[in-house]
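User: structure tokens for Peptidase, please.
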Amino acid sequence: MNDFHEIREEIERLKADYIHSLDELIKIKSVIDEDDSPFPFGSGINEALRTALAICERLGFRTYYDPAGYYGYAEVGNGQEMVGILGHLDVVPAGRIEEWSYPPFQATIQNGSMYGRGTQDDKGPILATVFAVKALMNLHKPFQKRIRIIFGTDEETLWRCMQRYREQEEWPTMGFTPDAIFPLVYAEKGLLQFLLKGRNQTSLRMNGGDAFNAVPSSIHYRGEKQKELEEKLRELGFAYVPQAAGLTILGKPAHAQVPEEGINAITRLCIALYEIDVHSSVIDFVYEKVSTDVYASAIFGDVQDEVSGPLKFNIGKISLQDEEILSVDMRIPVTADKSELVNRLREVIKPYQLEYEEVDFLDSIYVPTDSPLIQTLMKVYQESTGDKVSEPISSGGATYARAIDNCVAFGAIFPDQEKVEHQPNEYIELEKMFKAMEIYALAIYELSK
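Assistant: Done. Predicted tokens:
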């Protein structure tokens, strides 16, 4: 197929520009910060949005910046129909800097890989789609539909950017998001984020965790019974680091869609405190109803389905101040009933004098594998890679595919690659990303016909 050869050659010419542009974006600490700036999610995220749009303008796109700073987009082509490509520029916090081999907000290239927060999630992939379209533009390929690359700014938290986009803008007729794995994701679990709250009637004071959707890799404890706690941690085999004041309990970071791949430092601390007779409402709840079970079967029983697998339950943050608060991220199987699960949870937390407060909910999605969108994307992926074995998959992840109808997650990570989003030393293999760029160019070309 002649298109493969032409596109591959054009991407070869664009590689250096892609690397330079991604370096620009990685340097920006686009972590949510609802500060005193006029921007909804902080000056860092706004800088990343402005920079991404400036890159697109330089490449010849028409661009638009939402005056309120929630989103922006770059567009080419004409026609009534629109193909939407959705990605995000916000990133999760770096976490413990000492766990990084390279500075998280400085693009570092070593052995053919680029390291930095956002390289894999999602600055690297969304920029790859920009350069994929640029390759088509340089080759003068016709766009019979408009191609719009939509930049979100609040994906890692509450998706307020997409809510505003839907209120203000035209919806694409079809699309994809480069924020998962190849070949593509046809089903995504429901995502429920909530707080469990109660009045703190103890003298305990502590905070830990970075985000709902990240398994906490550490938590610092400074309080009563520290010597007993240290002995209990050793007895349980839980890693910790003594500090001048207190102890830091260690876990292993992971994304909340796969909490079984991590070690939750908060739950480990609660287990150890409970066993040395240090109690509070949230400590007792975690020990008695959750512990290390990422499926929360003591609360819900066995909840799973054939399409999307089991329910996942991640305690992302804890706070004991005037109130006790647990921040929980729960991934709900496609066929499960959210209201039934919430009602069950409300009953379970009553004896602990905790209350349920919903923060955000994204309903599950399911696009049949025989749909034209999926058939087109799978055909391009298979012809480009020669991989006829990998099948469309379901996921516990929450991608922007949920933001519009007829949209799926499509790459940019290949089946044999390591998924390192939200982890220290996040990186991309540059040649693999260039291969993804080739796939995106071919897919966009086919979808635009």
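User: Anything notable?

Assistant: The two ends are 16 Å apart (CA to CA).
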